[in-house]
Amino acid sequence: MYRYSEFDEAFLAERNAQFRAQVERRLSGALTEDEFKPLRLMNGLYLQLHAYMLRVAIPYGTLDAARMRRLALIAERWDKGYGHFTTRQNIQFNWPRLRDVPDMLDALAEVGLHAIQTSGNTIRNVTADHFAGAAADELFDPRPHAELIRQWSTDHPEFQFLGRKFKIAVTGAVADRAVTRAHDIGLQAVMRDGAPGFRVLVGGGLGRTPMIGQVIRDFLPDADLLPYLEAVVAVYNLLGRRDNKYKARIKITVHETGIDRVRALTEEEFARRRPHFAGADQALLAELRAAIAPPAFRKADSDGFHAARDSDPVFRSWTDTNLYPHRAEGYAIVSVSLKAHGATPGDATSDQMRALADLAERYGHDELRISHEQNVILPHVHLADLPAVHEVLLAHGLATANIGLISDIIACPGMDYCALATARSIPVAREIATHFHALKLEHDIGPLKIKISGCINACGHHHVGHIGILGLDRAGVENYQITLGGDGTEDAALGERAGPGFSADEIVPAIERILRAYLDLRRGPSETFLEAYRRLGLAPFRAALYPAQSVAAE
Amino acid sequence: MPREAFSQVVTAQDLLAGDVIYLAADDTWVRDLSEAEILTDKVVAQDRLISAARQTGHVVGAYLADVHPGRNGPEPVHFREAFRATGPSNHAHGKRAERRHV
Asked: Which residues in chain A are classed under CATH 3.30.413.10?
């Protein structure tokens, strides 16, 4: 885990002191809201539908017990006893009072966390595969590179006023769990001749104009990472549109300019900038590799794990769905579901956060991850410890065995909280989860990713959901559009719009019709929804969704 | 041709808490929509809004929202205003938990 240096601590202390003074000036009337708004946004403070919201970055989704406990404390002392983990590996506090925010930021700084660049037209929190450093299918742990990017991009003077926000995601594995193809820049680990590097994608993104990223560099040696990223962002900064905020993301720049031209300009810029990187970045990367080194994995007997699986069906079911292969023998990656049936996706109480911190400390080499799928990961747990871990999770309402299933839904805050939303997301997610849980169909349906956004900005990643749901305002009524066949992995695809939208009352029955059609049409339980969709196409699902229209057309 | 019905309230957010607030007839800010002043004249509504927007030391983002005059005071027209008036649906927080004068 990267520990802040004295320089980092001094920088953050000074920045927080600046913001404290800005808040005081706002409260005294010395600053108007128009003057204050950009200042608060630079520090992650939004004014949402019902209250302020503080968005705290969790760099590349990595936490330790001390940091998780601090988040729990902040939620309890200055918020309402819970936090909301987001699709960008951030945590949001939904109810802070303006006067308290400087104290919250100071409390975060004490453990090496902050809210800088969680808003605004800057390079945002760099996200990563939530299994980074643990997954069996990983080429190398990309988090030292992610930390390098974090340090480079934080307060980077050239990139504080980009045309639009800029998101970078990194994965060290072939299996893409970080949705790198839907980011402004996606970095995918590649080994060439024994040397680590990245395939660089650019111009991906969701929102109102969803696009899959294109390869701008097939192999970038990791020694060139920062100068090359700097070249990409600099080219975008000059070339990107500023006349229309809806056309200001780099995906539009790439689309309008062409990937070949953007690549050529980037290479020119890279050649200019590369000599100015005299090696300090590589020295830092070496330090970061040492700081983010794998823990000392232990050897132990796994008999207790197998015995518990044989004797306890609840434990067995949980291990069937919530574990992922670890690269170390005898270990597993544990996904802790924050999607108990009927709960708000991504919400965790202070008690739950503390329980997770305790588990990480006692059984997990003091490591935790936040996934973009709004769950918490214990990346390094020995099989022998899983029965004890499961027992604690059960006691805290955290043992839901549904990872990757229909109730493991991504949902943005929607109009329950977000000032930009055009419809609610959370109630739809809760109703889908409880409905299919009651029908006992969850495990029959099998792997399925439902993703819900409450507006066109697509924070809920609906375009890459196997079933995507987009909430809109249609003539003053909430209306939900369905897309099918989206995929956020290495086989990334944008979902196809199924047809006219559904009202809030109709959306869950509509989802049921799709899934009943899938159960009828699939070749067998081993054919997933996405596989069946790719084989069959939209037509049979559309027919199930709109039976009246299908009959009329015949 | 009958004149189009016009009913609006001035709404904003409290500077300190960020909570949704409404302008009452006595020039105080209230947290409960039912206690808001219903404005039925466009000129008066604009005047009240300008006056409210000047109170930058207390409120943020004042605007006029359409309402229906109801038996118990103004009722929201758009669902967004209904959610602002009632708080989030998933937790008993904000408006769901508290109803009191500013």
From this structure: 142-291, 410-553
For A243, the token pair is 């006349």
Phi/psi-derived region of residue B100, left when phi > 0, alpha when psi is between -120 and 50, beta in every other case: beta
At which residue do the structure tokens 């050239």 appear? Answer: A158
> What pLDDT score was predicted for residue A208?
94
Distance from CA of A54 to the nearest CA of B (A): 12
CB contact under 8 A, B18 and A344: no
Q: Locate the domains of chain B by residue range.
A: 8-40+57-76
Q: What is the pLDDT of residue B101?
A: 44
Task: Give the tens place of pLDDT for each residue, A106-132.
Answer: 999 999 999 999 999 999 999 999 999
Give the domain A142-291 fold.
Answer: Sulfite Reductase Hemoprotein; domain 1 (3.30.413)
Check: CB of residue A454 under 8 Å from CB of residue A418: yes
* Chain B residues lying within 8 Å of A49, measured CB to CB: 20, 83-84
Nearest-Cα distance to chain B for A99, in Å, is: 7
How many angstroms separate the CA atoms of A253 and A258, rounded? 8
Number of Cβ within 10 Å of residue A397's Cβ equals 16
Assigned CATH for A6-109 = 3.90.480.20
User: From the DSSP assignment, how many helices (H) and strands (E) are in chain B?
Assistant: 2, 5
pLDDT tens-place string over residues A351-360: 999 999 999 9
CA neighbours within 13 Å on the CB side: how many for A509?
8
8 Å CB contact between A461 and A451:
yes
The maximal CA–CA distance of chain A, rounded, in angstroms, is 73
CATH of segment(s) A303-395? 3.90.480.20
- Give the residue from A175, A428, A416 showing the smallest Cα distance to B80: A416
- Residue ranges of chain A assigned to CATH 3.90.480.20: 6-109, 303-395
| Residue A470: φ, ψ to 5° | -120, 120
CATH class in words for A410-553: alpha beta
Report chain A residues touching chain B, CB-CB < 8 A: 26-27, 29, 32-33, 47-52, 80, 82, 94-95, 97-99, 344, 347, 415-417, 424, 426-427, 430, 473, 476-478
Identify all chain B residues contacting A32, using CB atoms and an 8 Å cutoff.
56
- The per-residue pLDDT for range A338-394, each reduced to its tens digit, is 999 999 999 999 999 999 999 999 999 999 999 999 999 999 999 999 999 999 999
- HEC profile of A504-551: CCCHHHHHHHHHHHHHHHCCCCCCCHHHHHHHHCCHHHHHHHCHHHHH
List of chain A residues whose C-beta atoms are within 8 Å of the C-beta of residue B61: 33, 47
